[in-house]
Design a protein that fits this description.
With about 425 residues, the protein is of the alpha/beta class. It folds into two domains: about 15-85, no CATH class; about 135-415, Alpha-Beta Horseshoe (pyruvate-formate lyase- activating enzyme), CATH 3.80.30.10. About 35% of the residues lie in helices and about 10% in strands. Strand 6 (about 190-195), helix 7 (about 200-215) and strand 7 form a beta-alpha-beta unit. Helix 12 packs antiparallel against helix 13 (about 350-360). It binds iron/sulfur cluster (SF4). Iron/sulfur cluster (SF4) binds next to helix 1 and helix 3.
């Protein structure tokens, strides 16, 4: 247990109602839980609980339900430290959804939320991503495109290491894991999926088809992050019967999105989003969820214009990239940063501008820039300050290698 005492007043419902399978196949109760290496009584390393060594039932019965009972006694796992806060926590989310289960015996509560992060099978190599999260980086590197060294697009320099990473991420290919998950869906009412790119993941197709065949789709909320490249007839009909929250990871309007989410094509994504909108019921939600960073910050006005024109809502809480540090908007010179926020405010995006101001500027006046310095290249162990000029140079290399005009970014230095 940690020393501060801002723990919630009641035990958390996540261990009773929810399981999150991480990209490497490890289990945890929720996405805020910080899995730590396991040790035996003598301090020796034990493998963490994962789909490879533990079934869903075993994990729930042997780990999660005892965890709930410990919380009832006031013993909170250290791994829950993020919920030990005065601010609104993930605990609240489960309390809002599932407080009804408190009337049941904890051993009888079924699995209600399944949160699946499908390894690194993806069809894009985004400027803010890396090989561990997208196997597509390997392909793009072999085609000769420039890759950022260090944190961004670092790809292991030998095939054995690549295979080792992929082998930890491809749990969704294991038929016994698939069977175990499909057999435990009877109480599910919320399915969150992300990737890689979940829409191309065969296991997701099978799970959705199973729930449709079981006549349960209309009772289940399917929440999904997607890059928008796949909304073909088959997939569109698979998601249609579900309650839906579909979040499209679109970073920019037009060719800016193409280069940032290389080699996807905005023209196709635009059609797919329109097709998805046709599938949406009154209570479904379609959101555009850009990852805000130096490459799209100055072009956000165009993205908002496109969203407004088409009636798409941008997620209220912006995903503002913190790492790799060279892409963090805290790198931007303050005068340029303020000027762009004013433009966004004048365009009516007051809330978005405020959020960026609060999260970057007011946090000790560009504190993130401090952390950017000295940290940019873990792999080479270089402690080199990252300047705005470095950020511009690296951006230039990425764009020029892929044949795109730097003016797409609208960064004043490139105009
Ligand atoms: S207390 Fe917070 S971190 Fe712990 S299981 Fe609940 S929601 Fe997750």
């Amino acid at each position: 247990m940690t020393k501060e005492n801002n723990w919630p007043s009641k035990p958390c419902l996540a261990p009773l109602t929810s399981v999150n399978i991480m990209p490497n196949g490890q289990y945890r109760p929720c996405c805020w839980f910080w899995n730590k290496p396991r040790k035996d009584a003598d301090g020796n390393d034990l493998p963490n609980h994962s789909v490879r060594n533990t079934t869903l039932d075993q994990y729930r019965n042997e780990v999660l339900k005892p965890m709930y009972k410990d919380m009832e006694q006031g013993n909170w796992p250290e791994s829950c430290f993020k919920c030990n806060t005065k601010a609104r926590s993930r605990w609240d989310y489960y309390e809002r959804l599932y407080s009804d289960v408190r009337t049941e015996l904890s051993d009888n509560v079924g699995l209600r939320t399944l949160d699946l992060r499908f390894g690194n099978l993806c069809n894009a190599s985004c400027i803010t991503c890396n090989f561990t999260n997208s196997s597509y980086f390997d392909k793009v590197q072999k085609q000769g495109y420039w890759m950022m060294e260090g944190e961004n697009a670092h790809i292991p320099d030998n095939e054995a290491r690549k295979e080792q990473i992929s082998a930890t991420m491809n749990w969704y290919e294991d038929p016994s894991v698939e069977a175990d998950i499909i057999n435990k869906l009877q109480d599910i009412d919320h399915l969150y999926v992300t990737g890689g790119e979940p829409t191309i993941n065969p296991m997701l197709h099978k799970i959705l088809q199973h729930l449709i065949d079981d006549n349960r789709a209309s009772k289940i909320t399917l929440e999904m992050n997607t890059n928008g490249t796949n909304m073909n007839g088959k997939f569109a009909s698979l998601i249609k019967p579900f309650r839906k929250i579909v979040m499209f990871s679109v970073d920019g309007y037009g060719e800016l999105n193409d280069v940032m989410r290389f080699p996807t094509k905005f023209s196709a994504i635009e059609k797919n989003i329109a097709k998805c909108k046709e599938q949406m019921g009154h209570e479904d939600r379609l959101l555009i969820t850009p990852t805000v960073n130096i490459h799209n910050f100055f072009a956000l006005t165009k993205l908002y214009n496109w969203c407004n024109k088409n009636g798409y809502r941008v997620a209220d809480r912006l995903n503002i990239l913190s790492q790799p540090h060279w892409q963090n908007i805290a790198q931007i010179p303050k005068s340029q940063f303020d000027e762009q926020l004013t433009k966004l405010e004048q365009q009516g995006q007051v809330k978005a501008a405020q959020e960026m101001r609060i999260r970057i500027q007011n946090k000790s006046a560009f504190a993130a820039k401090e952390s950017a310095n000295n940290k940019w290249n873990h792999n080479r162990q270089e402690h080199k300050e990252v300047t705005w000029q470095d950020s511009l140079d690296l951006t230039r290399k990425w764009f020029e290698s892929r044949g795109y005009d730097l003016k797409l970014t609208n960064i004043p230095d490139f105009l």
